[in-house]
């Protein structure tokens, strides 16, 4: 269906719906993590045991991403988001019930459903977001990802209030699950209409074909490099301030808050930079910002320099994932499969990053362990040329790169 077949109000309505979907996903997925210690205590787990429990979430999420593309291609983004959100709602409910009754296996099953559902939800909303972006003719994908970031902030705020009023974590999880279900079901009805392939007609691309495309894999490496850059700060920045600078928890929280604020603002306004300079140059500039920020953080000069570094780091990490998702979805006929394959590569950073930094920190300290982010940024830079726009191609033909 061509862009001219949708009027402007219909596209604007779809844009708002996608934004709400990103924000709801952020709230549902990350909101409860602020009270992860309460889940650990409710299940009476050690730190190592809780780490293994969280591995259920990560492994399920990574494993489900390659399956999400064919699902989106078969049923369309709206139904795929609904399927993913339903799995996530059931997963959060299982985690809540497991915590309530003290059942680790039930909580683990809940996290498996949560991880699988989130992957499907994530791929589907990015495919829809890329379609809306393409039809509107302007760069808005970073704003959708900013919506996700804002959703995580709202989720963290809800967690803080829940903890302050002594609301049990299982009750918070039930409320979060109900809220996600109540918001998502009516929101996806505002997505653009999807027309599945006629019965018996083969899709434009298979998962195996996408894995053999150098461009798609390179886009995944861009997302991996920038995802590792983002994830390292999410997991270790505050700890690095405490261990490396002997800062108190308040200063560490300020540094982390500076990072997430800069990242959110970068996503809100990064579209203007992409439209002016293009994807490749924007990635290179943001990589330079992240590298300078990281250097300031690990330098151990003084806390104000570290906080300034956190701001530069956050701005630098903000656009890698949105640009990667938009790039993988340049060709609408192949968007779902390419997004799922590139996402499979990119999300590997969130599975491998935290334990790698932790292992290195045992030997050289957290701040020095963070130096491996330079390697991730170098990887993203080397692969950044793959994000140049391509023109949609006929079946079985690779797309042509744009300028």
TrEMBL record:
Keywords: Membrane, Transmembrane, Transmembrane helix
Topology with respect to the bilayer: Multi-pass membrane protein
Annotated localization: Membrane
Transmembrane feature ranges: 12-33, 45-68, 80-100, 144-163, 217-239, 251-269, 335-353, 365-383
Protein name: MFS transporter
Organism: Paractinoplanes lichenicola
Taxonomic placement: Bacteria, Bacillati, Actinomycetota, Actinomycetes, Micromonosporales
């Amino acid at each position: 269906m061509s862009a001219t077949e949708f009027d402007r109000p219909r596209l604007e309505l779809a844009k708002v719906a996608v934004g709400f979907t990103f924000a709801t996903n952020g709230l549902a997925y990350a909101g409860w993590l602020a009270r992860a210690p309460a889940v650990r205590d409710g299940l009476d787990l050690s730190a190592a045991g809780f780490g293994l429990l969280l591995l259920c979430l990560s492994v399920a999420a990574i494993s489900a991403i390659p399956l999400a593309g064919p699902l989106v291609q078969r049923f369309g983004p709206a139904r795929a988001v609904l399927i993913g959100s339903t799995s996530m709602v059931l997963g959060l409910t299982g985690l809540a019930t497991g915590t309530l009754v003290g059942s680790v296996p039930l909580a683990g099953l809940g996290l498996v459903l949560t991880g699988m559902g989130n992957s499907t939800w994530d791929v589907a909303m990015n495919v829809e977001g890329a379609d809306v972006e393409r039809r509107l003719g302007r760069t808005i994908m970073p704003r959708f990802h900013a919506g996700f970031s804002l959703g995580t902030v709202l989720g963290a705020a809800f967690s803080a209030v829940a903890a302050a009023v002594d609301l049990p974590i299982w009750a918070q999880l039930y409320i979060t699950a109900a809220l996600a279900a109540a918001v998502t079901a009516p929101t996806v009805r505002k997505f653009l209409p999807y027309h599945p392939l006629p019965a018996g007609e083969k899709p434009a691309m298979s998962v195996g074909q996408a894995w053999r495309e150098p461009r798609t894999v390179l886009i995944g490496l861009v997302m991996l490099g920038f995802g590792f850059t983002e994830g390292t700060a999410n997991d270790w920045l505050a700890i690095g301030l405490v261990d490396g600078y002997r800062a108190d928890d308040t200063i560490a929280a300020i540094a982390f808050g500076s990072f997430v604020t800069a990242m959110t603002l970068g996503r809100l306004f990064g579209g203007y930079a992409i439209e002016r300079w293009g994807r490749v140059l924007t990635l290179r500039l943001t990589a330079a910002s992240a590298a300078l920020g990281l250097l300031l953080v690990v330098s151990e000069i003084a806390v104000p320099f570290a906080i300034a570094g956190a701001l530069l780091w956050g701005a630098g990490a903000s656009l890698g994932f949105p640009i990667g998702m938009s790039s993988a979805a340049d060709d609408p006929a192949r968007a779902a499969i390419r997004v799922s394959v590139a996402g499979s590569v990119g999300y590997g950073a969130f599975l491998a990053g935290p334990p790698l930094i932790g292992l290195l920190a045992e030997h050289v300290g957290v701040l020095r362990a963070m130096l491996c982010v330079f390697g991730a940024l170098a990887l993203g830079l080397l692969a950044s040329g793959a994000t140049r726009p391509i023109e949609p191609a006929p079946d079985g033909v690779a797309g042509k790169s744009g300028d």
